[in-house]
Amino acid sequence: MALTTGRGLRIAYELTGDPSGPHALIVSGLGRQLIETAIGLREMLVAAGLGVVRFDNRDVGLSTHLDGKIDLSKVRRNIDAGLAPEVPYRLEDMADDAVRVIDELGVHRAHVVGFSMGGAIGQVMAVRHPDRVATLTSISSTTGDPTVGQPDAAGKRALFTAPPPDPEAAIDTLVEARRVIASPGQFVESEARALVAAAVRRAFDPAGTGRQLAALWAAGNRTGSLRRVVAPTLVIHGDADRLVDPSGGRATAAAIRGARLVEIVGMGHDLPAEYLDRVGREILAHIVAGEESGPASRHGAGG
Fold first, then answer.
1. 195-219: per-residue pLDDT in tens?
2. Which residues are CB-contacts of 4 (< 8 A; sequence separation ≥ 6)?
3. Cα(247)–Cα(143) distance, rounded to whole angstroms?
4. For residues 292 and 81, what is the distance between their CA atoms, to the nearest angstrom?
5. How confident is the model at residue 299 (pLDDT cuts 50, 70, 90)?
6. Which among 170, 235, 286, 303 has the fewest CB atoms less than 10 Å away?
7. Cα separation of 38 and 56, whole Å?
8. What CATH number does the domain located at 2-153+208-302 have?
9. What is the mean pLDDT of the segment spanning 78-98?
């Protein structure tokens, strides 16, 4: 399924599970397509009676891809110099895309579950559209504060190693990047390769990932705005995350009033089977508590 936004962008999405029950909106990370995102988690949420929505952010998958390769080094230099970078779109636009998806489905309030960049998008949703976010779960993400959540040397290489232009040749590069940031001892190459290959053959646009990264950088430090979040918030982070240092998760939980932090020993920048049950149980308990609290008590607590 797909919708066309007010600016003519196509956003591809899917709904599984109970369309009449509470809805969970899963927001993908940098360069990730809906088919790659939290498959096991989706199944757990569906089994619990939720309608689960996944979608392709702009510039990946079957959603609209914008034109032009962006100069990330120039964007970074401008940001470091305190200048407003010129980027095709911002994280706020991506958050608004997500709201349009639930609009299309007639869902007023969704339980937002975002991974990595998807966590940042979820945070922006909770700030810009507080009445649309029933609960927020931010996984393996950060606040945009440059003093926290930074990758280590290996994580940085994985992030900035561009895949070759040939889609089939790119699969090896992308699989290796995922190996680097995976939970130690939990990487299953055959599974990662099958998922990467399916995604590459569905849509391949490294320049689109670059434009998403520029939007993420341009968002800047969200710490101040996160203090306005009223949605009950769960922050999950692995202590072995090499792409987004665990300090990013701790800072997120500290910035959002009443947020609960769950650090998972041994988990990297992924959701392997070893940790999926724990993560799923934490998210489901959070959603159930959010449903029980209801919007009236939530907004009253927010002040």
1. 999 999 999 999 999 999 999 999 9
2. 10, 11
3. 10
4. 47
5. very low
6. 303
7. 13
8. 3.40.50.1820
9. 94
Residue 24 pLDDT greater than 60, yes or no: yes
In percent, how much of the chain has pLDDT > 90? 89
How distant, in Å, are the alpha carbons of 37, 84, 109, 186, 196 from that of 179? Answer: 16, 34, 36, 9, 12
Question: Which one-letter DSSP state was computed for residue 231?
Answer: S
Question: Which two tokens mark 229?
Answer: 């979040």
At 269, give phi and psi (nearest 5°): -95, 60
pLDDT of 295: 60
Q: Which token pair is 5?
A: 């936004």
Single-letter residue type at 29: G
Placement of tokens 């919007």 in the chain:
295
Q: Specify the DSSP class assigned to residue 36.
A: G
Report domain extents, the chain: 2-153+208-302
CA distance 208 to 225: 27
CA 282 to CA 231: how far, in whole Å?
Answer: 16
Q: Which two tokens stand for residue 166?
A: 């040939």
Q: In this prediction, what percent of the chain has a pLDDT beyond 70? A: 96
Alpha-carbon distance of 139 to 271, in angstroms, equals 10
Span 157-172, pLDDT tens digits: 999 999 999 999 999 9
